[in-house]
Design brief:
Order of helices and strands: HEEEE
Number of helices: 1
CATH class: Alpha Beta
Strand order of the largest sheet: 1-4-3-2
Distance between the termini: 21 Å
Number of strands: 4
């Protein structure tokens, strides 16, 4: 998420995550996600991102949603 919103962006909410499986020690873990909604609210751009954690090809956490505010572009 930070790569997408940078340090100037804000994480407003993280919700609906659940652990589906334990991640074994030493597993290679990857976080995947994508934008599922965009809107303007209270004068700010709000982006909703669906995220999940995958280890050895299996979803271990998620999917869940993060609501972020990217920095305003000039």
């Amino acid at each position: 998420m930070r790569d997408y919103i940078s340090l100037e962006g804000t994480i407003r909410a993280i919700r609906n995550f659940r652990m589906a499986r334990f991640t074994p020690a030493g597993a290679v873990v990857r976080v995947e996600g994508g934008v599922v909604a965009k809107e303007r609210r209270e004068g700010c751009a709000i982006v909703e991102i669906e995220l999940r954690t995958v280890a050895d090809g299996v979803v271990t956490v998620g999917p869940g949603l993060a609501e972020v505010t990217p920095p305003e572009r000039s």
